Amino acid sequence: xxxxxxxxxxxxxxxxxxxxxxxxxxxxxxxxxxxxxxxxxxxxxxxxxxxxxxxxxxxxxxxxxxxxxxxxxxxxxxxxxxxxxxxxxxxxxxxxxxxxxxxxxxxxxxxxxxxxxxxxxxxxxxxxxxxxxxxxxxxxxxxxxxxxxxxxxxxxxxxxxxxxxxxxxxxxxxxxxxxxxxxxxxxxxxxxxxxxxxxxxxxxxxxxxxxxxxxxxxxxxxxxxxxxxxxxxxxxxxxxxxxxxxxxxxxxxxxxxxxxxxxxxxxxxxxxxxxxxxxxxxxxxxxxxxxxxxxxxxxxxxxxxxxxxxxxxxxxxxxxxxxxxxxxxxxxxxxxxxxxxxxxxxxxxxxxxxxxxxxxxxxxxxxxxxxxxxxxxxxxxxxxxxxxxxxxxxxxxxxxxxxxxxxxxxxxxxxxxxxxxxxxxxxxxxxxxxxxxxxxxxxxxxxxxxxxxxxxxxxxxxxxxxxxxxxxxxxxxxxxxxxxxxxxxxxxxxxxxxxxxxxxxxxxxxxxxxxxxxxxxxxxxxxxxxxxxxxxxxxxxxxxxxxxxxxxxxxxxxxxxxxxxxxxxxxxxxxxxxxxxxxxxxxxxxxxxxxxxxxxxxxxxxxxxxxxxxxxxxxxxxxxxxxxxxxxxxxxxxxxxxxxxxxxxxxxxxxxxxxxxxxxxxxxxxxxxxxxxxxxxxxxxxxxxxxxxxxxxxxxxxxxxxxxxxxxxxxxxxxxxxxxxxxxxxxxxxxxxxxxxxxxxxxxxxxxxxxxxxxxxxxxxxxxxxxxxxxxxxxxxxxxxxxxxxxxxxxxxxxxxxxxxxxxxxxxxxxxxxxxxxxxxxxxxxxxxxxxxxxxxxxxxxxxxxxxxxxxxxxxxxxxxxxxxxxxxxxxxxxxxxxxxxxxxxxxxxxxxxxxxxxxxxxxxxxxxxxxxxxxxxxxxxxxxxxxxxxxxxxxxxxxxxxxxxxxxxxxxxxxxxxxxxxxxxxxxxxxxxxxxxxxxxxxxxxxxxxxxxxxxxxxxxxxxxxxxxxxxxxxxxxxxxxxxxxxxxxxxxxxxxxxxxxxxxxxxxxxxxxxxxxxxxxxxxxxxxxxxxxxxxxxxxxxxxxxxxxxxxxxxxxxxxxxxxxxxxxxxxxxxxxxxxxxxxxxxxxxxxxxxxxxxxxxxxxxxxxxxxxxxxxxxxxxxxxxxxxxxxxxxxxxxxxxxxxxxxxxxxxxxxxxxxxxxxxxxxxxxxxxxxxxxxxxxxxxxxxxxx
Length: 1238
Hints:
By secondary structure, the chain is α/β, with parallel strands linked by helices. Helix 4 (83-91) crosses helix 10 (178-187), helix 31 (712-734) runs antiparallel to helix 32 (739-766) and helix 38 (970-979) packs parallel to helix 39. The radius of gyration is 38 Å and the shape is globular.
């Protein structure tokens, strides 16, 4: 009988609330039309509430009331919007749900089995007519798919706090009729009639905000407040009001209307709909039970991972900081908010509000959202709480507490520990260089027993490591007769006990997927500050490390121990977990005669591996230790089956070696490859395609069984290119040519070479090739082939001051017209000092280092009219030019980039000539690109100012506080010019890499070239900064980055957080902390920059050459020497030789360590000795007579130490390294000239 009554009530609800239940409405309109009108009314309500328009809300409310009037049987005039009416709205519940026995809900934290609920639902299921009333566009199947129910990945700590029981299925909820919508809004006191008495009288903008209306305070004495505003307000939360007037567990009409309204909002997640539908329809036995289920449902919706992910949040913790604020990297972090502990459970990047984190209070599982600065504040409070807790434990303990360092590092691990090889810092090595080592396995530790003495009271925070071929244990009286130096006289392996920390134990950076790169190891060694005689030991250490790592990878079995098991085992064995996780090498392998094996390797200081050309890496195979072990075991040790034994030993095939050239007696005849036979010049065949193409590419282009290869088009293009090269070289041999003619012919040939390279690279990818052909490898070999032709052309057609081995230095005196304020770091004397340093390196003195002091006006026109509009927005260029041209002729040090409020111009000062100076700098860069790609030089340096890498597409890019010292971005302009199609006036290069070695991140260059991913560009930057310094805060506030170039570094580092992360594959930002050191920049270059550049395979490398990371620079955040800058330049030139025939354009950016250049007139009241202590630097003829050098005494004293070493010395080393890197081949193997010229 009870079920029958319930079904009758459901039928009544269907007839009242859903037009679908009948064929037509009371007014005769169709059901579909009435339903559409209902939805439109709902949408209009939401729109009006967002605009907060009283007039619109009044009109809409009147329309709703008219619709209600047409359906009400009673007189609409009796429908009063007062408190009594509100009570009647809630009390009149006609949609009571089926009553049933009590059962537990799966929604809250106290969830049990759902079987009882499902049985009760079957018994109380409504007739078909009632179910039709709930039919709408959503289907039950759509809400119960495995995808909809699967819990996404989220933080384990969060999952341990909540119970996410499955939600049973329930019929979809019906849409609200216009009458029900007015009833709901009246219950919630939403509408213009409530504007004067309640604070919130409109709907909220999102579905979740509207769901939280269940907590809205409802004014109980509205009528009294309307008549007398001084009356005390009586309010009650909406859900409590509903409970107060409910007659039974099914009498929750107002909340049901709210849930149905939320259910049909367009952005409500499907899982939230499922929870709402079940919550309002599940059988209950009492009012408190229904109320608790509703509250649990609203709470569950707020933190359910399915709901969050469907609503755009991410619940997966990132491996590294995501964006400027840290993003999803902060998921799982703890915070204190409003005095209570919370955990971060999700993250979303909102276009309007910025970055938001959803947090969960641990005590009551309530959620709340925090912005970046709020989250940072909360996390700091949590850290302070933990520190106080630890301090209290220390104080209350009656005995000495174990080291806090142990508490922090007991779970420390390092990537690749399962392969046994790490980098470690020895206490005995005073230099502190990380060195290859392996960690002893726990079984080895127990076997050694008392031989291992602990340096600490607890060995759980220590590991025992074996350093491989250490250099610091050498002895002048060493007994090793094969030692090449003192550094090689010590034992090959040395045991040491180390404290576990990120400072002493690091990941081993090299992969065994490739051969051991001796070239890369040389580059890394150059940053360690060790004597050159120690390099053989360094190389042996990595030979051993790579061999052991390869063996471990080959024989490593899956470790069944989880992290917790490893920790537990470590506790039992009184060791650190690293000793459990490390690879256990067999005794037979560890006792191999490694000394003997390494002695058989060639001495790297006396010999050099042969490569096909100078673009190839010098590599050697990795020692195959598993093959060695196999060879000394039967039957192979008996030589019984040598063929099979050889077969089991993995070896790397040797490369086919082809010399680049063999000069004749006169040194003028083009060289012939030995495998081509003797060909005369008259035959006009100097080279054939097999001289340049690798065996792999030749095989791919070869005909198969008389059928043309799919790459015939590539072979024909290559043959045509080689024929052109032969023709140009032959012509230059036969005829006397003037230098300009030869340059033009060479330039034309090189342009053809680069165009052919790019065009047919695209053709390979666009054509259909057999599956056996690897397109990526074919394109890689094609690029190398074209670059060999490019190099051959430069070498054969070069002149003593043009082509191979030539480094050009470009400058223009108009750059001196940029005059900054007195006391600015970016002083005009920087340019004369740069030229002085370049000349010390040989610029203008050596024929291979021409000095160009005047840039043609055509390049200034090209820069201003064509290229700069590609780099900067027209509004920015117009603003800067207008600002500068309006200055008086004698103006100096005027802010140029301040906004309308006068902010942002404190760094970027200038004068009337600043725009011309900046355009001249860009023009010099464009000319440098033309000279390099045209073959006039291999690389070039532009000594120009003002700098430009902080200048972006518009003013203050990437939310920086200023433009720094920059006006126009020469590096970005040069890259755009090089990559622009020839039809648009560019050079048509496919890929350009910008490597920024300035102390600061080049936010302007990244903004111009890589604001979105552009496959033509790779931007690489090593700079000070990082999330641990600049913080994870959101950058939405305009003044959040309130720091300039000279502010305290503890406030954050200019230009801000834009360089802390890499937004896409076209950007590699490497923040190096508070200070740039030789070790950090060297490690970054070798382990990150080199692989990224090699993968990108650029056709031109542009260096944003800043020298403000020098140890004596006044910015005070650098630790590099002048020699370090030379080494960095050398490494970049090596990258360029490998990918783009050495093409490097260097453009001066920062670097301010120039001592006072004019006699310093200090305060006459200062002591005489103080005034005499400040000496000046002599720049000679490079310093114009008209150039003054005003500065304050504080800056002058700071720069005084730059006399010993500073900006000038850095420039000298930089240009010297460029000159060394411009030599594509040994001059003994390649004549400097190709034939007579005039």
